[in-house]
Amino acid sequence: MWRYAAVLPLGHGESPVSLGEGATPLHELPILARELGIARLWVKDEGMNPTASFKARGMSAAITRAAHLGVPGVVVPTAGNAGAALTAYAAAAGIPVRVYAPRGTPSPILATIVALGADLQLVDGHIGDAGKQSRAFAAESGYFDMSTLREPYRIEGKKTMGLELAEQLGWTLPSHIVYPTGGGTGLIGMWKVFAEMRDGGWLPRDIVMPRMVVAQATGCAPMVRAFEARADRATPWENPETHASGLRVPGPLGDRLILRALYESDGDAAAVDEDVIRSDTLRLSRASGVDAAPEGGCALGVLEKLVREGRVAKDADVLVFNTGSGASYRF
Ligand SMILES: *Cc1c(COP(=O)(O)O)cnc(C)c1O
Fold first, then answer.
1. Looking at ligand 1, which residue's alpha carbon is closest to its atom 2?
2. Does domain 2-50+154-329 have CATH number 3.40.50.1100?
3. Nearest CA to ligand 1 atom 3
4. Which of 25, 58, 73, 238 is least surrounded by Cβ atoms within 10 Å, i.e. has the fewest?
């Protein structure tokens, strides 16, 4: 990831806290594209990152800054993968770490958090409830709050997903990017960097930007609801439930930025139910050899729905994100 240091938060003479994040594979899936009825389809496999999700990118950038600024400790509320990634990078930097996670977080992810040395606090409720406890602890302890979009650097790390996919596609962009959206940092980061790349001359001035597509679960779809209402803010989802735990974010702090990316890109947003997520996770895995996470299955399910409803055209070149690894969810 740090090959893109020129656009990342790294000072002169500083070295990054890195565990080999980024440079994840992009697989083209021509048979699945034909079955769906679109021109081309790729999956970018973020499950190949350290601790098995794209959260590694943001945490590598954020811990790099935190280490140079000398924070006494770091704390994060998480639906799972952010806690595992933060713990790994904090361990690499020798910084104490505390993680607040819902009791129902997949057990392999909790086991990783404990194995890598975090002080794990289990919370009744969802990531929003974990956030309240995490912020109270940060205020009393002086630990730095690493939650989504409350510090400026995680989003910078996530920009590298956009840089990489453009480079892997020979400095072109797909017509659609389908992104399983929880807090939305991946989508916001990519949308930010596409403009940076165009303005910096990395992409042609007249490049057609991808349509950004939010994929969510019907059990927790605050961004789909807000998009359908053409709102500029989202209202918190009551009783959020989905086994795609990275998507169980009822009230994303970055709601306005997510919606702005959708409107500016002429994008779309849709949700699918738990059965579709389950079957499309297997479909994606078996069509690609990628051990897809439920969040990746959700992205494929939403793509199928949009093609079926004529909202993605037959000549589309679509890139779906598999944001994590199926292994983290088998227990
Ligand atoms: C965190 C997470 C998401 C949601 O990511 P955002 O960029 O915060 O929307 C999706 N999938 C997985 C596997 C995650 O860990």
1. 246
2. yes
3. 246
4. 238
